[in-house]
Design brief:
The protein is mainly α. It contains five helices and no strands. It is elongated and about 95 Å long.
């Protein structure tokens, strides 16, 4: 409920309560606070049951926590079960995943490198010989550079 309240804050509050009310009234104040919390919970549970009974038997398993936007999205959209919307999120994720396209490009480059590898009788191309004049018919492909 209070994610930022840690042990130092609780100790500070406890010391402040003891200083304000004194150690002799402290048990009475704790009992009153606990009783108040019990009454609020009972009132809340009663209101929830009244709302469920008014909604009818179709909403017997209705939970008020489902009305929270994060819970609603997690339960009905992302899980994809029950009455959830089937948006095809898996298909969208796979369509946007670039790994398949990159694998195809890598395979094409490997095939091109394999096709242009020099044969045993052909002379080896060194970096000094790799530069051809602009008028040459075929450019040299260096598979190690890719």
């Amino acid at each position: 409920m209070f994610p930022d309240v840690g042990l130092p804050e609780l100790v500070t509050l406890a010391i402040l309560v003891v200083l304000l009310f004194g150690p002799d009234k402290l048990p009475e104040i704790i009992q009153n606070a606990a009783e108040f919390i019990r009454k609020v919970r009972a009132f809340s549970d009663s209101a929830k049951e009244d709302i469920r009974s008014e909604l009818g038997p179709d909403f017997k398993d209705f939970e008020f926590e489902d009305l929270h936007p994060k819970t609603f999205v997690r339960k009905h959209v992302l899980d994809g079960d029950g009455i959830g919307l089937d948006l095809g999120l898996d298909e969208i994720r796979s369509a946007l995943d670039p790994r398949k396209d990159l694998a195809e490009v890598a395979d094409a480059v490997r095939d091109a490198a394999h096709d242009t590898e020099p044969q045993a009788a052909a002379p080896q191309v060194t970096p000094e010989k790799a530069h051809r004049p602009e008028g040459s018919a075929r450019s040299v492909f260096d598979p190690d550079a890719t």
